[in-house]
């Protein structure tokens, strides 16, 4: 189930000469996970991210990867929203290591990281279809509350992310969750 070694989580660091393809590996992982987790919500062949975006997030110190040995098995992006609120997103765990606690460890890492920076609240958002229940979204709507997250509002993407509306294959809502840190 896992490669040798314990799970480690660290900032994504790319070589300074651009010779590695780590950003592509992470982008491929995120896109593969979200292709299943958001199947039917986006047009066929849509991708969640790119190696360029991953490299930009890494350069900004926002992207963290989970590894077993030298194998990347997950990632999470953590951004500062305001003086006391951070948000995590782009959470992905390799399906081959499901059940090993990678996702939960990444969430806990994101929370600890945000708390060390002085944040009081961790936020996350889930885009979910409006007219049907998607199994992955149902799972997440139960999983996050077990970790202390509470839904605080729901908006249409036209309010929060109008640029996404033409990219969606079905009508969706964005559910915002908060958790108090500390």
What do these coordinates show?
A hairpin with a 2-residue loop joins strand 2 (63-68) and strand 3 (71-80). Helix 1 crosses helix 2. With 182 residues, this protein is an alpha+beta fold. The model has no long low-confidence stretch (mean pLDDT 93). The protein contains 5 helices and 7 strands, in the order E-H-H-E-E-E-H-E-H-E-H-E. The chain has a 7-stranded mixed β-sheet, sandwiched between helices.
Can you lay out the helices and strands and say which pair or pack?
Elements: E1 7-11, H1 22-37, H2 51-59, E2 63-68, E3 71-80, E4 85-93, H3 102-116, E5 121-129, H4 135-146, E6 150-155, H5 157-160, E7 172-180
Provide a short characterization of the protein structure.
This protein has helices spanning 22-37, 51-59, 102-116, 135-146, 157-160, and strands at residues 7-11, 63-68, 71-80, 85-93, 121-129, 150-155, 172-180.
Rg, Cα atoms, Å: 16 Å
Q: What's the average pLDDT?
A: 93
User: Could you state the order of secondary-structure elements as H and E?
Assistant: EHHEEEHEHEHE
Poorly predicted regions are: none
Q: Helical element count?
A: 5
Distance between the termini: 33 Å
* Structure summary, number of beta strands: 7
The shape is globular
């Amino acid at each position: 189930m896992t490669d040798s070694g314990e799970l480690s989580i660290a900032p994504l660091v790319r070589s300074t000469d651009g010779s590695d393809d780590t950003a592509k590996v992470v982008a491929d992982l995120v896109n593969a996970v979200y292709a299943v987790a958001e199947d039917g919500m986006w047009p066929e062949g849509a991708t969640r991210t790119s190696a360029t975006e991953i490299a930009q997030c890494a350069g900004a110190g926002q992207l963290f990867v989970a590894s077993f040995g030298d194998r990347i098995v997950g990632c999470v992006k953590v951004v500062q929203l305001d003086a006391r609120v951070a948000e995590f997103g782009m959470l992905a765990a390799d399906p081959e290591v499901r059940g090993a606690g990678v996702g939960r460890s990444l969430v806990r890492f994101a929370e600890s990281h945000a708390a060390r920076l002085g944040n009081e609240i961790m936020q996350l958002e889930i885009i979910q279809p409006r007219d049907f229940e998607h199994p992955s979204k149902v799972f997440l709507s139960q999983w996050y509350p077990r970790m202390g997250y509470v839904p605080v509002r729901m908006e249409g993407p036209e309010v929060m992310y109008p640029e996404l509306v033409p990219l969606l294959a079905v009508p969706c809502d964005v559910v915002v969750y908060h958790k108090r840190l500390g």
